[in-house]
Write a structure and sequence with these properties.
Elements lengths: L4 E2 L14 H11 L3 E7 L9 H5 L7 E2 L2 E10 L12 H5 L2 E5 L10 H13 L5 E2 L11 H11 L2 E5 L11 H14 L3 E4 L12 H10 L11 H12 L7 H4 L1
Parallel strand pairs: 1-2, 2-4, 4-5, 5-6, 6-7, 7-8
Antiparallel strand pairs: 3-4
Helix pairs in contact: 4-5, 5-6, 6-7
């Protein structure tokens, strides 16, 4: 299946990435992506943009050449209390909040602490997607996070980059997470985690894992712009009028 939505990517604003907003739009048109979320790292990361970057995303167009652009962030889970580095005016500026663990902000803890921090972030009501929860450097209680994600209506991410260039050893955890989300009745979000536009919309390994687990397609947020936007509207109480043509 070709998924027309990609929910995780980084631009040159995160200085270890190499593509611009325009690069992503051009690539989206080539590969059939109708809706994308730009999710540069939250400001607590050393290479991340300043919080003004996120506040000023209001200047972005909503649609460019028919491609919808969501204003997002990959926030950092900062502590066991689940606090994230997205607050105040940033919360009003972003459409979608992904949050996850990154070593420069919160070094790996023991399994119980990692699990508690992730569940607290979900329980806060601020987070829509947990990024790369299968990272083996951050062991978690997989059934517990899947149950919490279903309870708090947070999607767990299946991150294609975790099978290629990042987070070596993630595959067994990712397979177990997909199975646990299936069992718990929760949702999956697919992310290319692109750091160059050339991998936009590449979900090759995500699709393989979902097929192995026989994950139900009706619970994959990326299946259509309408499904993703309906999920966000349910979570935030907001709709984005400019995206009406994407769901018609």
């Amino acid at each position: 299946m070709q998924y027309p939505v990609d929910l995780h990517m980084h631009t040159v604003a995160s200085t270890h990435a190499y593509s611009t907003l325009r690069d992503y739009v051009l690539q989206a048109r080539q590969v059939g992506i109708k809706l994308l979320a730009i999710t540069d790292h939250g400001p607590d990361m050393a290479d991340a943009p300043h919080y003004w970057h996120f506040v000023n995303m209001r200047v972005w167009p909503r649609l460019v050449d028919g491609v919808g652009i969501l204003r997002g962030i990959e926030a950092n889970i900062k502590n066991i209390s689940g606090e994230i580095d997205c607050s105040g005016p940033m919360m009003d500026a972003v459409d979608i909040i992904i949050a996850g663990f990154h070593e420069p902000v919160l070094p790996p803890q023991d399994k119980a602490s990692n699990t508690a921090a992730m569940i607290a972030a979900m329980a806060s009501g601020k987070v829509h997607i947990i990024s790369h929860p299968g990272n083996p450097k951050y062991p978690v209680d997989i059934p517990a996070i899947a149950e919490a994600a279903a309870q708090y209506e947070v999607a767990l991410e299946l991150n294609n980059s975790s099978f290629t260039t990042s987070r070596v050893g993630s595959e067994p955890n990712c397979r177990a997470i997909v199975a646990a989300v299936k069992q718990a009745g929760g949702r999956l979000a697919l992310g290319s985690d692109s750091h160059t536009a050339f991998t936009l919309g590449n979900f090759e390994h995500c699709i393989r894992i979902m097929n192995e687990v026989d994950f139900p397609q009706e619970r994959v947020l990326n299946a259509s712009p309408a499904r993703l936007l309906s999920f966000l509207a349910q979570r935030t109480g907001k709709t984005i009028p400019e995206f009406a043509e994407l769901i018609s």
